[in-house]
Amino acid sequence: MNRRCPLLALLLLLGAVGACAAAEIVLSAPQSEYFFQVGEEAEITLDVDNRGGTNVPGMLTVAVVPADAAQGGGRTQTKSLTIFRDMTTITVDAGAPDAPATFTLKVSFTGSDGQTAVLPEILIHFLGETSSIPATEPAAQVTSSAAASPGVQAQSGGTAIDRAVQAGQTVQDAAVLREAMAAEDRAAAAATEDLLSRAMADPTVADLDGRLRAEGFARTGNTADPAAGTFLFSYQRDGGTGAQISGAMDDDLRFARLDTAASLDVPALLAENETFYDYMSQLTTEGLPRGGTTINATHQSEQLAFSFGEGAAFINATIADSAVQEVSLQRRFNWIPFAALMVGLVGAFALAMRRRQMGGPETPEHESPADGAPSPAAILALAEERFAAGEMVPAYRGAARALRRQIALAHGSGSEITDGEALALLGADDPASIWAETVLDTCSRVAFAGREPESDEFNKMSREIREYLGEARTS
């Protein structure tokens, strides 16, 4: 534990309130010193200035260090925290000891960009009686603006010496004190480096690191808290997309977590899972694009979450013992499609009423539920155009959609369907069943599993689909 509060008191004037930035995040405290009664919960509100205008995920570390070893051990808490663009304050808890004591509060925030905001140390006194609060240092009046003035600095300097004397320190040899502080810094740096090295050497963390590097990410920073055993590695790739690997270790890894807004490749074991494949096809057909990726991992298992449509839906999966143990689809209610549906129903009802009043049929006989949707040939033509323009993945998706659309029109209601539903409509006895399954599987592996597209393959596949469309029209 860091016990150098008295040393800092002799070398620094603690009246000034600190503030520093992690990228565009600035933390500040209205006071550099607080007084509480024994048993009172010491909650301190810090000001947050998010100057970047975007949500910043990261890790908040709060350390409470005793000024005197006789007061017992301190504690360090680390938790994931997202500083939203409209967030103005956060509250930290320094505890509630049952005996008079003095502690140093250390607060830092490490963002996903690897930058760390470290708040200068804050002194917290727990007193047995309210009357024992020094009259020269009313806690409520020690603010950043007041601490910046020379008069308040002189007051803080005098009381810092008083605290050092009470702790049994002398002020005769500043060089010795500086060396003691430097030794503590070296010990803390060595412990931090040891934790980071052990974390990255762990096979689970190394695997997550390898996945990010394979996707073009480069490590940009790291931080660790040896007392809590927590660590965080930050990454970034061209285009500004960030990622982080966080976790905790004792002698062995407790857990590791990968978070990124990027759409990472789906592991091959999961991409081959039929349930996962059907969910991916279903969400993509609905027009929900892939979003971020989260992986919670231990030595025994991985829990993966793939976001779609800005959090409208998630596919969650568990992998253990080299097998997919569970796959589930989670949706969050989105009122926008519901509202659009209601508007459409109201419009259709109004149109039907108008036609009834005019004496005409409610719906022209030539109309069908599929009217207004693009034809399979039009969908395939657009896919071929996108492939020629170099948009490989959308082209494969379009080819699969054209085939599903034709199957739906020929064997079903004509509505959008998944790959599994299309094959079920064809049936095993249909001569095109095996061919259609191969085409849809090929498209899915390129569109969802990260398989490299091939020009000859796509051209052959689109030609076969076009021939199938012609056969279907004449049959």
Number of strands: 17
Cα(first) to Cα(last) distance is: 81 Å
Strand order, main sheet: write it out.
10-11-12-13-14-15-16-17
Largest sheet: 8 strands, antiparallel
Percent of residues in beta strands = 25-35%
Shape: elongated
Percent helix, as a range, is 25-40%
The total count of helices amounts to: 13
Low-confidence stretches: 5-22, 136-172, 360-371
Question: Secondary-structure element sequence?
Answer: HEEEEEEEEEHHHHEEEEHHEEEEHHHHHH
**Could you report the average pLDDT, rounded to the nearest whole number?**
77
- Gyration radius (Cα, Å) is 32 Å
What structural category arises from helix and sheet content? Answer: alpha+beta
Task: Report on this structure.
The longest helix has 28 residues, at 174-201. It is built from 13 helices and 17 strands. 39% of the residues lie in helices and 28% in strands. Helix 1 (5-11) crosses helix 3 (150-166), helix 10 packs parallel to helix 11 and helix 10 (392-411) packs parallel to helix 13. The protein has 475 residues and is α+β, with helices and mostly antiparallel strands. The chain has helices at residues 5-11, 144-147, 150-166, 174-201, 203-214, 268-271, 274-285, 335-357, 376-388, 392-411, 419-426, 433-447, 455-474, and strands at 19-22, 25-28, 33-37, 43-50, 56-66, 75-83, 89-93, 101-111, 116-127, 218-225, 230-236, 242-249, 253-260, 290-297, 301-308, 313-320, 323-331. It is elongated, with a radius of gyration of 32 Å. The strands form 3 sheets. The chain has an 8-stranded antiparallel beta sheet with strand order 10-11-12-13-14-15-16-17, with helices on one face. Strands 3-9-8-5-6 form a 5-stranded mixed beta sheet, with no helix packed on it.
